[in-house]
Amino acid sequence: MECIKGDDCYRALDRDQYIIFYFTASWCGPCQQIYPQIIELLKKIDSGKIIFYKIDIDEDDNDELCEQCEVKSV
Q1: Pick the catalytic residue: 9, 28, 66, 69?
Q2: Cα 37 to the chain's mean position, in Å?
Q3: Known catalytic residue at 66
Q4: pTM here?
Q5: Among 3, 9, 31, 69, the one annotated catalytic
Q6: Given CA atoms 15, 64, 3, 43 in this order, what sign does their dihedral have?
Q7: Where are the extended beta strands (E) located within 1-74?
Q8: Is residue 65 classed exposed, middle or buried when 0-12, 13-18 and 19+ CB atoms within 10 A define those classes?
Q9: Torsion angle, CA of 19/23/42/16, rounded to 10 degrees?
């Protein structure tokens, strides 16, 4: 799973695949608990059809993206 930030997410949208943005934070207990399950899901699906991107909500570069996606909490 690639970590992206800022405007990189818009370049990801140019791909001809389904995209899942995984919004997370290093201090978020539930985020850390679900992370292994996300990795297992990645292993099970066809990577040519769905791409996962990890987005840290604490990165200053991601403030605009979180606002546009209406991420209020994790």
Answers
A1: 28
A2: 14
A3: no
A4: 0.72
A5: 31
A6: negative
A7: 2-3, 18-24, 50-56
A8: buried
A9: 10
Six-digit token string for 57: 């909500």
Q: Is residue 28 flagged as an active site residue? A: yes
Phi, psi of 2 (to 5 degrees): -85, 135
- What are the structure tokens assigned to 53, written together? 């991107």
Beta bridge partners of residue 2, listed in sequence order: 53
Cα–Cα dist 14/40, whole Å: 26
Q: What is the residue type of 41?
A: L
pLDDT in tens, the chain (74 residues): 677 776 666 666 666 778 888 899 989 999 999 999 988 888 888 666 788 888 888 888 888 888 888 887 77
Contact criterion met (CB below 8 Å) for 3 and 56: yes
Helices and strands, counts by H and E, the chain: 3, 3
